[in-house]
Amino acid sequence: MTLTEQEKKTATRAGTVAGRAGLPMTDCPYRGEEPRARALRYLWVAAYQRVKPAEPGTVNYDES
Asked: Region entry Disordered: which residue ranges (predicted)?
């Protein structure tokens, strides 16, 4: 599975825009557990958190 540069840019830009707009992180459009969705979700969330970092203690990384 390889993401195209356009897919990466789109996911990153969408996460940045969502964070700046103050949307909840749960608005991430990339759902599912297939590798492509997981990779795009990672990029989206990373971009989102760069502009709207989570408050300490509010993110549970151990939750499945």
From this structure: 1-30
